[in-house]
User: Fold this.
Amino acid sequence: MDPNNLKYTKDHEWINIDGDYAIVGITNFAQKELGDIVFVEIESLNQEINSGEVFGSVEAVKTVSDLFMPITGKIVEINEKVIDNPELVNSDPYGEGWMIKIKILDLNEVESLLDLKSYEEISE
Amino acid sequence: MSLLIFIFAENMKIKKLINEENHIELGAKMVPFAGYNMPIWYSSISEEHNFVRNEVGIFDVSHMGEFIVKGKEAKKFLQKVTSNDLDKITEGKIQYSSILNKSGGIIDDLLIYNLGNEKYMLVVNASNKSKDLEWLKKHNNLQVTIEDASDNYSLFAIQGPKSVDVVNDIFNKDFSNLKYYNFIKFEDKNFESILISSTGYTGSKGFEIYVKNNFAENLWKQSIKLGERYGIQPIGLGARDTLRLEMGFCLHGNDIDETINPIEAGLGWICKNNFEYIGKNIIDKNRENNPSKTLIGFEIKEKGIARKGYKILNKNEVVIGNVTSGTISPYSMKSIGMGYVNFDENKISNSIYIEVRNKKIKAVICKRPFI
Assistant:
């Protein structure tokens, strides 16, 4: 996925919006800050979660971090490959390391997301 | 994603390692720790950890403190302010010891080098330098000189099965007979006065090299260059922490601190019986009557990693203590940790639970080291 076409949050998630659906992951900056990721835990399939609320967590060797919903939605799919091979988040954060697919429940929230340029300003 | 990274970062005036630029050039991620900007990792903690276990790595641990204690009564003074028995180390030998407060709590753990001629070097934790120094000076009613030499020296640790080949090549000497916890001092034609000891905080074979700051950059570069044929890699503080934890070594500020005494921490072996020292009456009482809590090692049997502060529960789900350190071992991939539990709950292979973010996950008390 081309980082230019994604939207971002200040909590370091990226979101790729396609109509009413979107794919969510964490940014390259985030995976670098975390270091070796050893577990990804997401147990919120089929749940409706508000933007900014926790949908899961990532454990790296050194630290643990929550994952936040970039936008209010229902989780319709979890990337099982990432659950089994969490290192994919380190090696391919915008590709095979994606985490969830959601059905967007409030398209108005899209406006509050950051574009690449604004995200880079807060993450550099 | 919230980046709660590096809980141990502190807001202090940041000092620069002599080799800071070299670390950055090698790709290090630098974080403030104990008043220094320190390399936390270069490639990744897991890779670096396994590199030390299988090959050889070099750490810049120049943030550590070095005090020189000297004078006719240096030994008498140190017998009073440190817990281990200095009669056990002759010149050229090193001892692991602790500085205790009056309640037996561990102000710091340290290494003491017997330099001979009524002179000792104390190597203390970076974060504790100033309070250690203040404590030592406060209790110095003897004619003893205490000098903080920390800003004059750099310290590199070369650790791993191939470490001896690397140090032999750097100094063109043979260190294969240097015994564990022994050191030698010599004048080197390139690096002037060098002190090299067979010590480390990794559990792998290794050496620690003390060098004057003027020669620290050359020595670092030379070590990387001459170590190349043995595949040497720079290693950050992240792997230093996972390596020590895999061996069950205590980290001051995590597993030991001023509220914990050495008996509770399983460090009774560094507390002497024959001489008086500060904290001794509490240590003796804890030895006789068993302490109220004790340090355990555990292995988590489900998915999850224990972190400092998480609760430990017994099999009836009653809280019995707290986690002080935890990680995934990059070597065995086991999820391991240490923590304190009520003394009577400490039985090897007892089932326990660790409360990981509102979930109770299964673990078992096990022996240390974890490998």
User: Anything to note?
Assistant: Residues 213-227 of chain B form the longest helix (15 residues). Chain B has eight helices and 19 strands. The two ends of chain B are 33 Å apart (CA to CA).
